[in-house]
Write a structure and sequence with these properties.
This protein has 199 residues and is an alpha+beta fold. It contains 4 helices and 11 strands; from the N terminus they run αααββββαβββββββ. Strand 8 (152-160) and strand 9 (165-169) form a beta hairpin. Helix 1 (4-20) packs across helix 3. The protein is globular, with a radius of gyration of 21 Å. The mean pLDDT is 83.
């Protein structure tokens, strides 16, 4: 059983080999999965080797190959139709499957657990999980993970007020918009999904 980061590492290696015809170096893997520590990358790669997903040739920085394994079905749940959240509609069963790996997994995705109620009017509640696509840029209106002064991370709606000012807007009418000079804010990713457990 692979951890999420091990799955991301394996998927990146697969994609890299398919695109370039050889294996990536540790530094390239780290850049691809958003991990700065080569020691951490080495641990993920070693786990993939130990679990039988890859072979490695010692002393060769690109000496890595994939082991052909039986295809494992992605995590899916039945998608049985639609449900009205506005006007009632006829309940019609439409048996399909919802592929959770396509929605919530990938080398550019990571998850965060929400703490606080600054985004409740966007439907994002305390203890929800948000799925973030790792990217350094955002468009006006995106909900983003922003790092302020390289120390404080926050989930807010992004708006560029000028070339020199960025507004981070809470979705809670009791809270005020935060405005920073652009050089104080770094975008780490954009919201692409959300999960909530009612159990």
């Amino acid at each position: 059983m692979l951890t999420t980061q091990e799955q991301n590492t394996l998927q990146f290696i697969r994609n890299y080999i398919a695109q370039f015809g050889n294996a990536p170096k540790f530094k390239e893997i780290g850049l691809g999965i958003g991990v700065n520590s080569q020691g951490t990358v080495h641990r993920y790669v070693q786990a993939l080797e130990d679990k039988g997903y890859i072979n490695r040739i010692k002393g060769n920085s690109r000496g890595m190959s994939l082991i052909d394994l039986p295809m494992v079905s992605p995590p899916v749940i039945p998608l049985v139709g639609k449900i009205a959240a506005g006007l009632p509609i006829e309940a019609v069963e439409d048996q399909q499957e919802l592929n959770l790996s396509e929605m919530f997994m990938g080398p550019d995705l990571f998850a965060l657990r929400v703490s606080g109620d600054s985004m409740i009017e966007a439907g994002i509640l305390d203890n929800d999980y948000v799925i973030i696509k790792k990217q350094p840029i955002a468009h006006d209106g995106d909900i983003v993970v922003a790092m302020i002064d390289k120390t404080e991370a926050t989930l807010k709606r992004f708006r560029r007020r000028s070339n020199s000012e960025i507004a981070l807007i809470p979705e809670n009418c009791e809270m005020e918009t935060m405005v920073y000079s652009a050089d104080r804010v770094r975008i780490h990713g954009v919201l692409v999904g959300q999960m909530r457990n009612y159990r």
